[in-house]
Amino acid sequence: MNKNISVDYINQGHHDYLGAEISINGQIICLLAIDDDLTLSLEFFHENYLDVHKTRYKVDYQEFLQVLKECKLELGKVIEKIKVTQL
Q1: pTM, 2 dp
Q2: How far apart are CA 41 and CA 46, in angstroms?
Q3: Looking at beta carbons, which pairs linking 64-70 to residues 24 or more positions away fall under 8 Å?
Q4: pLDDT digits over 8-24, tens only?
Q5: Lower CB count within 10 Å: N or C terminus of the chain?
Q6: Which element (helix H / strand E) includes 85?
Q7: What is d(CA 72, CA 74) in angstroms, rounded to the nearest whole number?
Q8: pLDDT tens for residues 26-66?
Q9: Rounded to whole angstroms, how far apart are CA atoms 84 and 23?
């Protein structure tokens, strides 16, 4: 993974790892989350949360796409566990 891109899996209260916060150069830019209907959503943080004067947000497209794919795979495992427990 690119050293400028990092991922923190977070618990939003219901189950383990319901979201992946993706950061560039230490600044969280978006959240890939499991919604209540067990679908994934991508939420980008508003410019008021970003320090545009201190952080450069440019990264390689393929590397960012790979991070999203890895997060989707990891969160997909959580979704499957949730589905099993709901049976």
Answers
A1: 0.80
A2: 16
A3: 64/2, 64/5, 66/1, 67/1, 67/2, 67/5, 67/7, 67/22, 68/22, 68/32, 68/42, 70/1, 70/7
A4: 988 866 555 589 999 98
A5: C
A6: helix 61-85
A7: 6
A8: 888 899 999 889 999 999 887 666 666 776 778 899 999 99
A9: 31
Nearest of 23, 42, 26 to residue 34 by alpha carbon? 42
CA distance 54 to 31: 21
Angstrom distance (rounded) from CA 68 to CA 28:
14
What sign does the CA torsion over 4, 74, 62, 12 have?
negative
Q: Is 54 helix (H, G, I), strand (E, B) or coil?
A: coil
Structure tokens at 64: 């960012």
Residue that is written with structure tokens 């004067």 in the block: 53
- The answer to whether 58 and 48 are in contact (CB under 8 A) is no
Alpha-carbon distance values, 50 to 8, 25, 32, 36, 44 (Å): 17, 11, 17, 27, 10
